[in-house]
Write a structure and sequence with these properties.
mainly alpha; ATP-dep_Glu-Cys_Ligase-2; two-stranded antiparallel ribbon; DUF403; 313 residues; Alpha-E domain-containing protein
Length: 313
């Protein structure tokens, strides 16, 4: 397979999964806004940093500060074409890649991605209103899951499919840590210190729900949601498809089907060890966000090793 085609397949799957999880990330904030009492202060600004777009936001909105309204943050995360990780940019990037490799994937995939592109163009502005936001986000998530389902059901299990799987695994691992980062960030400021734990647990419940993990959490853990238990489940569970450990294990299972690249193996084993050896109780008691940032740095190094080993060699 040409390295250019492999690169495009890898990034196509990453962009589709990024679009889905950006919608889920915004869903964390939207769900919390619905659940929290009006007396509790909710801050949207940390979510931009969680998405890795803090510098871009500061460049284009230098006077915004920390006290930005939800519609500005939602517009930036979902619709702003100047944001390289926005929902619209991700879907448009996936569509442009697919345009150049349409012979490699079924026609149904093109139609599903194009449908998402058109839907965002027509209905995107409505998502800025709280009244229509959940409906919009759910429609985007469903559309991305449809694309993933078509890829899983209709694509031959050749080397190209393995690059699709590798891109999906890395992107989901990265976005799961970012959504957990949102749960650990200062989105909620309770008036009374004694209420902090209760609202923290509410944040983690929203994180689980945004990742469609709440029901599976209850099935596996059978305890009420706490920061420690949510972190343990989303970081280290070997059976839930969006847990970081599951995604890394999936990437590890893909590598034997590809040409051997020692740098890729080395970086993957490093991030697997970091995740497996993490202590959720320690993280919950201190600063989970710092650990998520560390995992993201290692995932970025793993991506660089993949690019150097397979696409730029």
């Amino acid at each position: 397979m040409l390295s250019r085609v492999a690169d495009n397949l890898y990034w196509f799957s990453r962009y589709v999964r990024r679009a889905e999880n950006t919608a889920r990330l915004v869903g964390v904030g939207s769900q919390l806004q619905l659940d929290l009492p009006r007396s509790v202060r909710f801050t949207w600004r940390p979510m931009i940093d969680t998405a890795g777009a803090g510098e871009v936001f500061a460049e284009h909105f230098p006077e915004a500060g920390d006290d930005v309204v939800d519609s500005e943050v939602v517009r930036f995360l979902l619709l702003d074409e100047r944001n390289p990780s926005s929902l619209r940019t991700s879907v448009d990037s996936a569509r442009e890649i697919l345009r150049s490799i349409r012979d490699s994937l079924p026609q149904d995939v093109w139609e599903a991605v194009n449908d998402l592109h058109l839907y965002i163009g027509v209905q995107g502005e409505r998502s800025l209103s709280r009244r229509y936001r959940v409906e919009f986000l759910n429609r985007i998530i469903d559309g991305c899951l449809k694309v993933s389902g078509l890829l899983s059901a209709n694509v031959s299990r050749d080397i190209g499919y393995q690059f699709l799987r590798l891109g999906t695994a890395l992107e989901q691992a990265d976005m799961t840590t970012r959504i957990m980062d949102a749960g650990a960030s200062g989105l909620v400021t309770p008036r009374n210190e004694e209420d902090r734990e209760a609202f923290q647990n509410m944040q983690w419940m929203s994180v689980l729900r945004s990742l469609a993990a709440y029901q599976m959490f209850r099935r596996h853990v059978r305890q009420r949601v706490t920061a420690e238990l949510a972190l343990r489940f989303l970081l280290q569970n070997n059976e839930f498809p969006r847990s970081v450990q599951f995604c890394l294990a999936r990437a590890q299972s893909v590598l034997p089907t590809m040409p051997f690249r020692p740098g890729v193996d080395r970086h993957l084993n490093r991030v697997i060890g970091l995740t497996r050896n993490a202590d959720p109780a320690y993280l919950a008691a201190r600063n989970p966000a710092a650990f998520m940032d560390e995992v993201q740095v290692h995932l970025s190094a793993l991506h660089d090793a993949i690019a150097d080993g397979y696409f730029h060699g």
